[in-house]
Each structure stands twice: as C-alpha cells, then as structure tokens.
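Allow me, if you will, to draw on your knowledge of protein folds for a short while. I am sending you one protein, given as its amino acid sequence and as whole-number tokens for its backbone shapes. Kindly check, if you would, that the fold set down in the tokens agrees with what the sequence suggests. The record follows directly beneath this note:
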Amino acid sequence: MIYLLKFGASFVLPPGIFFVLLWAVSVWCWRRREKRIAAVLAGITLVFYLCSTSWVSGWLLRGLEYVYVPPAQPQGDVIVMLGGGATKDTPDVDGSGALCAVPANRLLTAVRLQRQMGVPILVSGGQVYEDSGAEAEIARRVLLSLGVPAADILVENRSLNTTQNAQYSVPILREHGLTQPILVTSAFHMKRAVLNFVKQDMAVTPYPADYQTNREAHFHYSQLQPQSGALLGTATVLQERLRTLVTQYLE
C-alpha cells in the first residue's frame, strides 16, 4: 500500500503533474480532430516521462557504471581523485566550504584505499564558478581532518573540467616520479576520465566509486513513477556519452 501511495503521489507533484497535464492537452487536441498535433505531443510526453523513471535512467546508467570494475587488489604508487563540485562558504566541521555529495563519495573511497595501500593522494579540481568552492583545497582540508598526513597529499587546483584534470595532474605525477596512478572517480564518469588520461600518455588503473545503480536490475512498478532525480540521471548519461565523443574525436 505504501508503494502504491507513493506511485500515485508522483503524478500529483512535479514532474509527474506536468506529464498528466500534457497528456490531457493531447487528448483535447485529439478530440478537436487535431490528430497529428495530438500524436506528436503524446509521443514527446511519453519520451520525457520514460526518461524521468528510474527504470530507464537506471538502465542507461548501468551501461556506463560497469564498463570498469574495481580491482580486488589494486596496485599503484598514487591515488588520483577527481573533483566534482563544492560549495564555497557553507559551514563544515573544520572550516568553510564542503564537497558536494558526488566528490564526497569519491573522497571516501580514496581515503580507504590510501589507508590500505599507504600511497599518496592527488586531489584534482579548481574553483569552477565564482560562487563554487575550490574543490582540491577543500578536499585537502578534509583529508587532513581524516588523518591523512600532509606529506601524502598532492594538490592540483587549476582544472575546470575533466580534460584539464588530466592535463594538469599528469605533470605533477611525473614531477614526483609517480607512474602507476589509481584513478578514483564516479563510476558513470570513469570511461571519459580514463580516456583523458590516456590522451596525456598516462595509463591509469580505474577504481570506480559513487555507484548509483545495482549491478543486477530488479524491476518493481515503483520504478515507473516520474522523478526529477531519475531525469537528472538520464541527462547525466546523455552528457557523458556526448562529452566522451567530443573528447575522443574533437579534442
């Protein structure tokens, strides 16, 4: 009963209410014998509705997240963690500014690997926008508060995107004689991240983190309720596919 109530409520709140209204408009157009307009509108609404379901977004994300699998016994001489967003002046335990959820998940994986392997961590990410945080600097502060020695933290704080993550990180690695990086980033982002490091002539060991889907799909009708988070997941996949193509063929 709980799932059924949640399913019904999803069509009363955004984005579900918009699909209901658009379908109502398409029915109205059909009754006015404007069948072509009605069919086009209904088709577009159906596509956007499906893209807003976790059933579709999960299927699309799964196609990106399991390109690489974390090695059971990773071997390397440095961990490279890519940034993914930070706030500038939000209160934090030991300062101001915090990592967003995605890079925070990456950092959690990086710290656990560092404790297991005893190798340095390079955090990569600059201040992308005027009102966003300096990602690598905030990550460094958090790493220190978690007990990672300052001598084991390298900082790349100029990059504004994944391409620059690789461009600016590789020279730092080479400067310190580090040649076997373990790359930590979100699973959906890993394919493009690896490609960017390969283009800088640096082979990496992928260690995906921040998974958003299970390896095995299990269907439940609640996955058909429209959700803004699911639409974001679909958009994320489309962005990654497009940016990977640009990286591979145009950059």
Q: What stands out?
A: The chain has a mean pLDDT of 95. The beta strands are 78-82, 86-92, 95-99, 121-124, 153-156, 181-186, 205-209. The first helix runs from residue 2 to 9. The longest strand covers residues 86-92.
